[in-house]
Amino acid sequence: MADIVLNVSVRDRSGTGSARASRAAGQIPGVLYGAGRDPVSVAVAAGEFRKALTTGKLLGHLVTLKYGDEEQAVIAKDVQFHPVTDEPVHFDLFRVDAHGAIRISVPVRFRHQDASPGLKRGGALNVNLHEIEILASAEAIPEEIIVDLTGLDVGDTVKASSLVLPEGVRVTAHHADATVASIASSSAMASEEASSEAEAAS
Q1: Residue in 134, 175, 137, 180 with CA at minimum distance from that of residue 157
Q2: Staple partner for 95: which of 33, 34, 75, 183, CB 3.0–4.6 Å?
Q3: Three-state secondary-structure class, residue 26
Q4: In the prediction, which pLDDT does 1 show?
């Protein structure tokens, strides 16, 4: 079973009025999509939803949706927040097969900057993709994709196709040939090189 269980009620109707009524009743409205079935308007108690959010394991993770005695494996793919209060106001859930491959974007994190010759010499890390779109079973979605910068020098690039991924996870065709990041010469390095050339010429 997933780490998070959301107890939902089914809303009688969809639309702005229904969502507003749910929020007034202390609930967060949402919609359940996917699996070739019609969308279903649902709602979760606001306190329960906020608690699930604070775990950091709601978005992009397998969640168990519970309605009475029925349970359904879902993925939370989007949460909308109020622009002023930053409180959650709506969410989207997608039905999934816990063992079937689904498409989802996960964040990219960079490690071992101190082991990159290019960065140690003053180069700059240019990040092209902050998220990578992958295919993975719902129960095997990684929380992040790690990029090891060890040994990278100025001019080196990191391609999505060269990333080290967990077993059973692969980059989608959408990002297969994409450049994730590169090590570039910085303005400070350019100034230092110009100064060195000027000293050598004098």
Answers
A1: 180
A2: 34
A3: coil
A4: 46
Residue 7 token pair: 């107890």
Q: Say what the pLDDT of residue 151 is.
A: 95
Residue in 3, 4, 9, 5 with CA at minimum distance from that of residue 26: 9
The pLDDT value recorded for residue 69 is 85
Average pLDDT over residues 104-126: 92
Q: Amino acid identity, residue 56?
A: G
Q: Is the pLDDT of residue 35 over 80?
A: no
Selected from 3.30.450.40, 1.25.40.10, 3.50.30.50, 2.40.240.10, the CATH number assigned to the domain covering 4-96 reads: 2.40.240.10
In the block, residue with structure tokens 């060890």: 150
- Cα angle 51, 63, 55 (rounded to 5 degrees) comes to 30
The whole-model pTM stands at 0.64
For residues 200 and 192, give the distance between their C-alpha atoms in angstroms, rounded to a whole number: 12
